[in-house]
């Protein structure tokens, strides 16, 4: 069963708790939290304090996507705040294997994220150590951007790499996912689909989540 992770980047920050509860009620599997620092990406969102505030609002796993420079410095704070999955960009980590080890030491699941320009091959050395690989299908920084179709091949390559190595990791896809592009991602081997505007931009959240999941 494909999981759906609504991105609260597209929620209304003035009533974030209600928007989190609403997607939980509508059948979401994870709550995707986009953390941006204005350096690694050209936008600033929220930090560990926001994660701490959201934690008691939902029973769903908090899937924290760190789009920040120097993530090692903040991983402990996000884990303490209640993150269940912490994903770091391969491009932001000089010592990626060490950073992944550090996330796991905090007792949370570890994910590695690939920008569109980063190849599947670049994470072969750490794929055995992660719980999740997140494939960006837009250049990170903003919601509402168009899906880059060339990334479907990368999803297939990571699926093949994981299958050949007998790994049970989750492959998550993020950026420009809607009912149409979700079908392509599922076909390419994705397990978790992140969507912001295609969920929060719709009146019927349940219908939006169902159409992305495909069932
Ligand atoms: O990480 C990011 C953007 O950098 C995403 O999680 C976006 O929040 C997805 O938004 P949509 O493309 O689905 O509107
Ligand atoms: Fe994200």
Describe what this molecule looks like in 3D.
It catalyses: D-ribulose 5-phosphate = D-xylulose 5-phosphate. This is Ribulose-phosphate 3-epimerase. With 215 residues, the chain is of the alpha/beta class. It has one domain: Alpha-Beta Barrel (TIM Barrel). 33% of the residues lie in helices and 19% in strands. It has eight helices and eight strands. It has an eight-stranded parallel sheet with strand order 1-8-7-6-5-4-3-2. Strand 6 (132-136), helix 5 and strand 7 form a beta-alpha-beta unit. Helix 2 packs parallel to helix 3 and helix 6 runs parallel beside helix 8 (205-213). The longest helix is centred in the C-terminal third of the chain and has 13 residues, at 152-164. It is globular. The termini are close together. The model has no long low-confidence stretch (mean pLDDT 98).
Offer a few descriptive terms.
215 residues, alpha/beta, TIM Barrel, eight-stranded parallel beta sheet, 33% helix, 19% strand, binds 5-O-phosphono-D-xylulose, binds fe (ii) ion
Binned, the helix content reads 25-40%
Amount of beta strand: 15-25%
In the residues, how many domains can be counted?
A: 1
Q: Could you give me the name of the CATH homologous superfamily?
A: Aldolase class I
Low-confidence stretches: none
Q: What integer is the average pLDDT?
A: 98
Tell me the span between the first and last alpha carbons. Answer: 9 Å
Give the oligomeric state. Answer: single chain
Give the second-level CATH assignment, the architecture: Alpha-Beta Barrel
Count every helix, treating DSSP H or I runs of 4 or more residues as helices.
Answer: 8
Unique bound compounds: 5-O-phosphono-D-xylulose, fe (ii) ion
Shape: globular
Walk across the major sheet and give the strand order. 1-8-7-6-5-4-3-2
CATH class: Alpha Beta
List the helices and strands in order.
EHEHEHEHEEHEHEHH
What summary fits the major beta sheet? 8 strands, parallel
């Amino acid at each position: 069963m494909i999981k759906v992770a609504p991105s609260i980047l597209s929620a209304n920050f003035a009533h974030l708790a209600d928007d989190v509860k609403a997607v939980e009620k509508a059948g979401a599997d994870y709550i995707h939290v986009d953390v941006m620092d204005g350096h690694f990406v050209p936008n600033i969102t929220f930090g560990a304090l926001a994660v701490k505030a959201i934690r008691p609002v939902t029973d769903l796993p908090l899937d924290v996507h760190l789009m920040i420079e120097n993530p090692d410095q903040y991983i402990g704070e996000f884990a303490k705040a209640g993150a269940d999955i912490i994903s770091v960009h391969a491009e932001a980590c000089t010592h990626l294997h060490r950073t992944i080890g550090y996330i796991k030491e905090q007792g949370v699941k570890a994910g590695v994220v690939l920008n569109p320009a980063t190849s599947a091959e670049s994470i072969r050395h750490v794929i055995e150590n992660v719980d999740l690989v997140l494939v960006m299908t837009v250049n990170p920084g903003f919601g509402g951007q168009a899906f880059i179709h060339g990334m479907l091949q990368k999803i297939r390559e990571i699926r093949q790499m994981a299958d050949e190595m007998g790994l049970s990791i989750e492959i998550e896809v993020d950026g420009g996912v809607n009912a149409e592009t979700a079908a392509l991602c599922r076909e390419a081997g994705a397990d978790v689909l992140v969507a912001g505007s295609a969920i929060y931009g719709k009146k019927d959240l349940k219908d939006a989540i169902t159409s992305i999941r495909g069932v």
